[in-house]
Structures are given as C-alpha cells and as structure tokens.
Amino acid sequence: MSIGSGAPLRSASAIVAGTERGQHLLKIAGYSSITKDVPTGSKLKSRSFRVGGHSWHISYYPNGMNSDWSGYISVYLGLDHHVLQGVKANYTFSLLDLAGKPVGTSTSGEAKIFDGASWGFPGFIKRDELEKSGHLRDDCFTIRCEFTVMMDIHTKDIDPPMPAVVVVPPQELHHHLGSLLKTGEAADVTFEVHGKTF
Question: Which residues belong to any copy of the MATH domain (predicted)?
Fold first, then answer.
C-alpha cells in the first residue's frame, strides 16, 4: 500500500469546563448552651465533606466572628487542606424552617477563590430574630450550605463521530444499465421515453 492511501486516521477531543455541586446540612442542637459557652470570635466546625475533589467544612460562630458582629450568627465555608492553586466556588447559606425549606438565604454572587481563607457571611442572621422566628424548636435549628465548585478546565479524548458511508457504484454500472434497457430482463421498472417503453 502506498503512503497516503486508505482511510484517514480519525480522532477527536473536547475542552471541558466542569463543575460539581454539593450540599451540606449543619444542625445546631443545644443552641442556648452553645451560644452561652462559645465566646465572640470563636467558631465550631462541622464534620468534613468532599465536593469537587476537595475536603470542606462549615465554620459556625454562635456569637459572631468578631465584636462588630457579636449580635449575629456568622457562617463560613472553608477548605480542610492547603492547596497550591486556589479553588473557585460559589455558595449559598440558608436557614431552614421546620419543614426543611429555606426561609432566609445569603448568596455569594460571583465565585470566590478558596486558597486558605474561608468565605461566608458575618451577619448571616441576628440571634434575637432567630429566637423570635419560630424556626428554633427544641433548642435546635438547621443551616444548609449549597455550593458549586468550578473544576479545572482540561482536555480529554472523545469518540469521533462515524463518517458518512458513501457507496461507490461499480465501474461497470453503465454496461449493466445499458443491457437492462435493451433486454428488459430482471427489470421491475418500466421507463417510457417519447412513447417508447423500455
């Protein structure tokens, strides 16, 4: 076979910007005791959870992250580990009612870069508003964090589409058609041209 003959080698690839979504529920059980025992600026961390190839946690500040926010509950999302390159994500924190539906929501808007720092809301909810809201039952309430991690843009191989199949007629087709028109043998089609039937 000579060089360059035959079917071309076929390949295909895609540039992919993937995302992965996650959700974590943080239940605060014993709200009164936690609020009394944990001072302003101190936090409690949720259990770790994995989304987008990384380990995350929620930080809960029952008396605010600092003295400027001492009348509030502060909540933050953070990574559990050091990363060489920042991880991009956007997030939403919601206070859930007794039926598990969001009644107060704070959203990051544009995506944030997580590179060691946590991101969140220092004034997520005023403590006195929570205590009057009816969403605090049996000294418990639940916060939901939903977030989307932007994965690295990468390329990957994909299967190329199948080529269109073109059937090439045999080289002797004109001879066969000529013979068919002359003899009419093995024909199931009749042509009429200028009153003459073939």
Answer: 21-147
Long-range contacts from 166-173, C-beta under 8 angstroms, 24+ separation: none
Strand residue runs (E) in 62-130 = 72-79, 87-96, 102-107, 112-114, 119-126
Widest pairwise Cα distance in the chain? 108
Does residue 46 contact residue 60 with C-beta atoms inside 8 Å? Answer: yes
**Do the Cβ atoms of 114 and 108 come closer than 8 Å?**
no
CATH number for region 15-155: 2.60.210.10
User: Do 107 and 145 form a contact (C-beta atoms < 8 A)?
Assistant: no
